[in-house]
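Structure ticket #2291
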Amino acid sequence: MLQSSYFPCRGRVYSQNFLNFPHGILFLYIMTNLCPKKHLGFLFLLLSFSLYAQGPGCPNVNAGPDVEVTCADPCTTLTASYLQTGETTSYAVTSIPYDPPFPFTGGTGSTNITSDDVWSEAIQLPFDFCFFGDPYSRLLISSNGSITFSIAGEVPNGRYTPSNGAGYVLGQDGDRNIPGNIGTTTDARAVLGIMGVLQDTYPPNSFSGWSINYEVIGTFPCRMLVFNMYNLGHYSCGTSGGVPQTYQIILYETTNAIDVFVKDRTPCNGFQEGRGAIGIQNWNGTVGYTPPGRNTGNWSASEEAWRFTPNGESNVEFTWRDAAGNIIGTDPSITVCVDETTTFTAQAEYTDCNGITITDIDTVTVTRESDIEVDLGEDVETCEDDPIVLDTETGDVPDLTYEWFLDGVIIPGATNSTYTATAPNSGEYTVEVNQDGCIITDSINILFNPQPIIANPPQDLGLCDDGGSAALFDLTQNDAVVLGTQDTDFVITYHHSQAEAENGTPFINPADAYPIVGNNETIWVRIQNANNTCFVVDSFEILLVSAFATAPPSPYYICDQDNTGSEPVNLQAIFSADILAGQDPNELHVTYHESAADADTGDNPLPQPYMVTTTQITLHARVENRLDEDCYSVTNFEIVMELPPNVNPTPLDLITCDTDNDGYAPFNLHDADDDITNGDPDLVVTYHPTELDAQNDLNELTDPYINDDPFNDVVFARIEGMNTSCNAVIRLNLEVRNSPILTEPSPLRLCDDNTDGLQIFDLTVRELEMLGAMDPTQYDFYYYEVEVDAITAGQNALETPDFSGAIPAPTAYQNTTPFQQTIYVLAVGNALNTAPYNGGEGCFDIVPLELFVDPLPTAIQPLPYE
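Resolution: structure written out below.
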């Protein structure tokens, strides 16, 4: 990312530090003196890359952007960021991207260094730089790329004199590394020193434009000393190596961090073995820090950079403060809740090694805004039967409370976001919505007018069609029905259509002698209040009616299912459709009677269901029009009761074996026929998936039938007699058992001791091999010389087990076929085989077992040995 930014002069204690930016960002700049005196303007060039640590820079804190909260959610989390620094009791050394923030030639502070191996004059810093726990304000720069605070006569144990020899030896008497110093003036490893790059450079023989310069940049409390070694040559090698030695050291005020940028460093192999070093060390050379591979030695570097960051105990204290200045938190993130717009302050207080405190603050304002609106709508005039739902339409906004008022009086219990206003409560309705102190109100006027209702549905009116005179209907028969106990001032009118009824005109007059148009007509009734503001309408039918009774098929046979001599019959369900023969059952009423006289008068209707108690009976049916009880017709029919077939109601479960043990297997359902019919050849059995299917003779199942549910299933048998219409339905349980799955065993081999091809075998030795992981206690083994005998015994194992044909002594069996014979092994689940599911008792598997009688080897007479 490339970006330019300009920081204008700001009314704070110090200007914004150009290095104080988030992880992953470094700013390069061209600095111009755009602001008067201590305020500097900066033009930045922003490059994005990955940093290993927070960039050093000014003490600063950022409280984050201003925040708006709502009445519904007045809380928010504020998160501040601030520069975190530590004491200089220890340092962390990290590699940083090579990107020098200052030019190597930009230093305005010249030095008096023009010769070899000398210190500069004492350089006064405008700030204290803390180094290994102590503050320093004066330093020396050497011609060999080092800085020291150990100035003789100025600091305790000060060792070096301005403008005097700086030492040039790296590795004297075998002591080479940092930390270290043998205490002689020739040792180049400066105590209380910063070295980067420390090597024996030679100003008198350097590249064109060479410079040893420094500059102090920035304003309190973030000033920087920039020390540059530019285009230097080596002692001994001079410029013959062809690569100018160029590097930069930066010291930061307050953070006390140190950066070393190495543009180019190459060794001069002809002098001191080309040694060089980057590092820092304390006042006596006992504690020091160097980057990996950059302690005293022969190494080269191009465009690399290192940072020495104080990482002792934190020297910054962070606090959050409320509007009154009270401390409300010390973590950068804090959750605050406000009931009004409030300003919070983030404060970072830095303490340097002199005990000087530097404080920076930033503020964030939390503004509380209501996020809801309440609008109950326009005033309403309506009818009493039209409840008005008043809705605040606040949606799902949480933590709201509601209070409703009628004409200024609190409505008890009305505390929801909606309220339903009902008659007769006319007046002004007001709602107050409270969102943690935010009160939003709205009002609406509601007027309820009296609302007529249809007290009872109007009755359809019918007159029997006699084919003679015109039928005149008295519509007012429905006046009392629809009005009920309502106000007698309500007006009732009758109309030809719904539209006319809703408009109130025209209306039928006279209403008590209305001639029907056609055979049927819809009439609409209207009830309206006295001032004609509210009304209700409904409709009913007037029609010419008739009633016809058609004789149903007769006789009708029923079964005495429980053989008790009586059987209930639902006469309506069985006969009414045939008797009506397509007429609308909603218009006609069918009743049943034991005598023709009762049917003619409608007396003594039979109950439903009706209990038939004789083997044969004649019943009478009356069809009456619901709108005119004098409109009717009668007919009759016979009922004959028969006995059901004699069956076994609890047949044995039908069991089969599953060859692949997945719980599904084919059943021959008709194997249960004899058990179900008790052996009666005149009964026919069919099988069905459900009891209802069996009762209705639907979805017959055929053999072989594979069960629907694994291991246990049920079907229903329907049994019919050849000489009766009766049937019986019973349940048949199906059970699937697991079969053993044998592994074909390896052959048995014995030697032919008698050269007759016969031998005595123990056939049982392969049983565990055949069973594999199956439990040997749950299976019985039988051995057969003939395969069909083994198959027959296995097939009969479930119902009629018979293993008499098996080899009687399988542990001492002599083969009957010389040399090779096949024995057939039958494994059958025994009574212990009860799991999983239904177990496997009676289920079997057969595998062959090969017997071999091998001839003895023939000895060959060897030749005589000589």
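Closing remark: The two ends are 101 Å apart (CA to CA).
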